[in-house]
Amino acid sequence: MTADAGLLALLDRALAMTEDRSRGVPVDTSVHAMFASLRRQLDAMRAEVAAGEVMTVEQRNSLTLGVIAVREFEADDPEYCDVLCDAVFRFRAG
Questions:
Q1: CA–CA distance, 83 with 89 (Å, rounded to integer)
Q2: Can you give the pTM of this predicted structure?
Q3: What pLDDT, in 10s, does the model give residues 48-74?
């Protein structure tokens, strides 16, 4: 798989939105842990795409950010939910 510029841009947008929304969240909270998990998954996805590598099926199936996005953000922050879900969908389809 070669680096997909559109997917990289989408992942960069998701990372920026995650950073923006997590700013000011107290460190010792479950909300901080959730944003940290989202960031780790987005970082891993971005690294794979940038390197032109492919995660194993098991690794791709272990991504939970789509579920987190729908559960936590669909009602109150649909734009963020959509970006996260689009990133996961495009990444898995890649």
A1: 10
A2: 0.92
A3: 999 988 888 888 888 999 999 999 999
Task: Name the helix (H) or strand (E) containing 31.
Answer: helix 30-51
Distances (CA, A) of 83 to 26, 28, 79, 91: 24, 26, 6, 12
| DSSP 8-state secondary structure symbol assigned to residue 76 | T
Angle at 68 between CA 34 and CA 20, to 5 degrees: 55
- The Cα-based distances of 62 to 40, 41, 57, 58, 73 in angstroms read 12, 10, 9, 6, 20
d(CA 77, CA 60): 25
Kindly give, in sequence order, each residue whose CB lies less than 8 Å from that of residue 91, ignoring residues fewer than 6 positions away: 7, 11, 45, 48, 49, 60, 63
Give SS3 for 14.
Answer: helix
Kindly state the DSSP code that residue 27 receives in the 8-state scheme. T
Cα–Cα dist 18/81, whole Å: 11
